[in-house]
Structures are given as C-alpha cells and as structure tokens.
C-alpha cells in the first residue's frame, strides 16, 4: 500500500488548491491508499469551524473535511507554530487533529512515499 501525504499550505479561499487537495485525498483513500493530511502556514485556515464561504461566492468544500473518518483518513496533523501564528486554538477547529511541531512534520514526511503540496 502506497503512503500518500497531502500537505495543505495555501489559504482555503481564492484558489481551487484546497478543494483539489481534499478531492485527491478522498479519491486516493477510496482506492486503498494510506492517506495522511498535514496543515501548515495558511493551510491551517481550512479547519476553522463555522466558515461561510458562500458569502464570498465560494463553494463550501470545507465541510467535506468532516467526512475524513468515512474514508479511513485518520492521520491528520496540524502545525503547532502555524496555529500560534494565526492566533488559533485546538478548540476552534472543525475536525479532530494532532497538533505537532516542525520536527514531527519533517519526520512524518520522511515516512511516506509521496508528498503533494496544495
């Protein structure tokens, strides 16, 4: 089984990168790939609760992150420093995540077969 990591670095709105990353994660998991997600930099903004992207004319793909357990995507990591940079706390996030430091992220990236950045 191939280990795939999707790294979310860009903000959730204004581009299709986040939606494409999420679509790829769900599709890959449905084909028996071991998928993990890592959120760093502006990518942490994908996981904020109660977003209303339709107010800016965007589609609400953000709520689809709640479907991760249905696809057996259990390894979801978020950068501790990025959370602090944006003044966010674990309680403001919409899905269960593991808060990790930069060293843990680097170690995880070394353990997977492929990393795709969105």
From TrEMBL:
Gene: tusC
Pfam families: DsrE (PF02635)
Taxonomic source organism: Shewanella scandinavica
Protein name per Swiss-Prot or TrEMBL: Sulfurtransferase complex subunit TusC
Record-stated family: Belongs to the DsrF/TusC family.
Xref: InterPro entries: DsrEFH-like (IPR027396), Sulphur_relay_DsrE/F-like (IPR003787), Sulphur_relay_TusC/DsrF (IPR017462)
Gene3D superfamilies: DsrEFH-like
